[in-house]
Each structure stands twice: as C-alpha cells, then as structure tokens.
Design brief:
The chain is mainly α. It has helices spanning 5-14, 31-45, 59-65, 79-90, 105-125, 150-162, 175-189, 195-201, 206-218, 240-256; strands spanning 20-25, 49-54, 71-75, 222-226, 234-238. Helix 1 runs parallel beside helix 2 and helix 6 runs antiparallel to helix 7 (175-189).
C-alpha cells in the first residue's frame, strides 16, 4: 500500500474483498495511530490479515495498536528472518515464533509444525489460570530455597551472553527464556519494560522477538500494560502464573545447589 494514509484508509473501507493488506511504514506520523487501529479492528472482525513492515523506532507503536495474531509485524533489521516471515504471512499461514533463515515449502512446513508444538506447550502451561504447573520437590517443600534476586537473574543473563564469545550466537537462540529472565529481573527491580527493550533482551532479530512476544502473551505468560504517561506505548510484564513459575524454578535450583542459565 502506498500513498497518503487518508487515501489508504479510504481504500480499505471501500474494498469488499481483501486478502492481505501490506503496510510499509518508516516514519512516525500522527495518522499512523488511525491506520494501525483500523488494521487491528479488521483483524478482530475477521475481514483480512495485515503485514506491517516497520523501522525499528516504530516497534513500540506497532505493539501498542496491533496485538492481534493476524497482524504480522516485521521489522527491517535483518534479511532472511523478515523475508521468510513475510512469505508465510502472505501465504495465510500462522505467524512464526522462531527464527527463520531458509525459504521453500519444506521450511514453511517445519515452521508450521514448530508453531503447533509451541502452541501445545503453552496450552499446557496455561491450562490452569491460577498457577503454573507445580515443580517437583527435590528434597522438601516447594516453599523452601532462596527467592531469586535481580542480581542472580542478571548473572544468568550475562552467562548466557558469554557463550556467544565462543560459539555462534544462533546456536543458542532461545528468545522465550531470555525474555522470561529479563522480565523476572525487571519485576524484582520494580522496572517497566517496553516492547522494543524486550526484543533486545530476546537476543534475536526484532521481527522474531515481536512474534515471540505475541505468542507468549496469547499463551498467558506475558501481560500487556498501558503506559500511563504515553498512550502510544505499552509495557510487557510477567503474568502472576509465569512469575510464580520463575520463582519456583530458581528456588529449586537453590535447593539443588545448581546455577541457572
């Protein structure tokens, strides 16, 4: 889609049958709020799916207005990941919550299977809205063991990043866990985390990070929280269930005398 935003909105309203709307946005202008809001509404109504190709400085804005899974957000920060995601989105497939580096039908089939596996895992994690699945006690009750500190979790994050000094970073890409760690540390510190910052914490391209944030939010592990000072931005926090799961994990490590990574 090209041309002024008002014209684009009119074309969307006039069209009777739209499969996919592709928006390429690189500059923040006030009219973007209305366009993104319209695309989100169309996704909720089941009219069509959208693909947003944005510059990195629009990550927070897109995340604020377009959380629906049928609005795929691609960040122009790295080649093959965005290209493969765009191909899947235009094909009408589900979004890809993993790093995509190859093209072709076989790769798309693998990505679809991975989506299904992750969805099943998240469904199991959020089956009970009250708490995460209980950790098995190592010696005594689940309440034993030291509560994690922000310093402990930040040490885990640094240890994970140090692996990249000796091995290719892609070998250890695990954005879900990196994001969980960052949000747990931020929760203890009383610090808010914006979407763009969480993508950086995931240590993957922003397009991949955005898909993971949507996936984990849909799975009940992340919460979207409005920024009271900026209506065009949201923060991401751990759900209570996810926070209890993280706390239980670190207490279990403490009981066993293990270090977490």
């Amino acid at each position: 889609m090209s041309g002024p935003i008002d014209t684009a909105l009119a074309r969307i309203d006039e069209a009777c049958d739209i499969g996919t709307v592709v928006v390429d946005a690189s500059v923040d202008v006030p009219e973007l709020d209305r366009l993104f809001d319209r695309l989100e509404a169309a996704a909720r109504e089941g009219r069509f799916r959208s693909v947003l190709t944005i510059s990195p400085d629009l990550i927070d804005l897109a995340a604020r207005f377009c959380p629906h899974p049928h609005v795929d957000t691609l960040c122009r920060d790295g080649g093959a990941d965005g290209v493969a995601a765009l191909a899947v989105a235009l094909a009408g497939a589900r979004r890809i919550p993993q790093r995509a580096a190859e093209d072709g039908p076989m790769r798309l089939k693998q990505l679809s299977e991975e989506v299904g596996r992750i969805a099943r895992t998240l469904a199991a994690l959020s089956e009970n809205d009250e708490r995460m699945p209980a950790l098995r006690p190592i010696r005594i009750g689940d309440d034993d063991g030291a509560e994690p500190s922000a310093a402990m979790i930040r040490a885990c994050i640094r240890a994970r990043r140090m692996r990249e000094l000796y091995f290719p970073a892609d070998l250890f890409a695990d954005p879900a866990w990196d994001m969980l760690l960052d949000l747990m540390a931020a929760r203890i510190e009383g610090r808010r985390v914006a979407v763009s910052s969480l993508c950086i914490a995931g240590a993957v391209p922003a397009t991949t990070g955005l898909r993971w944030i949507k996936t984990l939010t849909d799975g009940g592990l992340f919460l979207r929280v409005a920024d009271p000072r900026d209506g065009r931005r949201i923060f991401i926090e751990l759900s209570e269930a996810a926070a209890r799961g993280m706390s239980g994990y670190f207490r279990a490590l403490d009981r066993a005398g293990l270090a977490g990574v």
